[in-house]
């Protein structure tokens, strides 16, 4: 029968293992996301890819509006010649996010001929995959990804995993101002980033294992 001291030692060992293999990696991931350098290192690119966000009726939500405004600013400064809006129709919505983004940009001086859209995606990865397809038809190959600062580490990693020549450019202003809203967004992004890393590495391992078994 285990003594009380042995039970305490086992509990302590278990706690340390959980901290080492679960909590610590999440903390490190959150730290890297928060301090990720999202300053655009490109002087120019073919297009800005605006990652989709919620719309309110036929208007962009405050989060989406900040992303669109930043892309418009890049366009007017001559850093990009085109803008690609992404995002499909969200749950309980009647219009695609990309369509709302396009209308907003046109109303603020962006030429319609310089705007491309994809209206099927519902996730960040789908945003990027579909944007790449749209861009390839127009022979666009160098991109600036526009989103909120805490979103860009995961988005940029996904883009580069898709073999896209892409660089981040964070919105200079963000609707996530309060400590509570920033922490909530950071926790969500940390989980999503960690899940993406694990699922991607698992897929690579699975594919490698299958190729080894062939023959």
Question: What are the salient characteristics of this protein?
Answer:
53% helix; 7 strands; single chain; globular; 5-stranded parallel beta sheet; 215 residues; two-stranded antiparallel ribbon; Rossmann fold; disordered C terminus; 6 helices; alpha/beta
Strand order of the largest sheet: 5-4-1-6-7
Shape: globular
Number of beta-strand segments: 7
Low-confidence stretches: 208-215
- First-to-last CA distance: 52 Å
Note down, in words, how this protein is organized.
The protein has 215 residues and is of the alpha/beta class. The protein has a domain at 45-170: HUPs (Rossmann fold). Helix content is 53%, strand content 15%. The chain has 6 helices and 7 strands. It has helices at residues 4-34, 62-76, 97-106, 124-137, 152-161, 179-213; strands at residues 45-50, 55-56, 59-60, 80-86, 115-118, 142-147, 165-170. The chain has a 5-stranded parallel β-sheet with strand order 5-4-1-6-7. Strands 2-3 form a two-stranded antiparallel sheet. Helix 1 crosses helix 6 (179-213). It is globular. It starts with a helix and ends with a helix.
